[in-house]
Amino acid sequence: MVKYKSLLDPEIRKETERRILALNKECSPKWGQLEVSQMLYHCNKVLMVAIGKIILPKTNPVIYAIGNLTKIEMRIFNNGIPHNMPTFSKLIVKENCNFGESRDQLLKTLGEFCEIAESGKLPKKHELFGTMTTKDWGFMEHKHLDHHLKQFGV
Fold it and tell me: This protein's superkingdom (predicted)?
């Protein structure tokens, strides 16, 4: 049976934190245009969606349907996120970012995400992926962070 990794599993969270701490400002991406500090800030923004601090715009019905199908596909096949996927403009980072501040803020927001999840107060819906359970959030947020940490070789 396939093991689904989740940021809400304490061991997976520790491993993810260790990988984040293994990054340094000299890390280069294997694909894409982001610098490592921008990637950290982007990942922080994505987690902020999960804790309700960033509200995404509504998507059109076709994109919404594709997003729902993508979530289902990822659950069935446990596959990763393809390289260079489009994202919401609110989550795109173009500005220069401080590496240490971006890393520390991501770790802080990750902790906040886990606390809010434990209290059962994560949003019940995502503007792309549709209805979300706590289990869905833990799984999808792990997939997103794992994707970007692999992008930078950790």
Answer: Bacteria
**Cα–Cα dist 81/42, whole Å:** 15
Q: How many domains does the chain have?
A: 1
In a domain, 119, yes or no: yes
Condensed to tens digits (0 to 9), the pLDDT of residues 92-136 reads 999 999 999 999 999 999 999 999 999 999 999 999 999 999 999
Angstrom distance (rounded) from CA 100 to CA 24: 9
The answer as to whether 44 is a domain residue is yes
Write out residues in the chain with pLDDT < 50, as ranges. none
Distances (CA, A) of 43 to 48, 102, 130: 9, 9, 20
pTM exceeds cut of 0.70: yes
Domain that holds residue 143: 25-151
Residue 11 falls inside a structural domain: no
Query: Do 44 and 106 touch, CB atoms closer than 8 A?
Result: yes
Instruction: Kindly report the number of other CB atoms within 10 A of residue 120's CB atom.
Output: 7
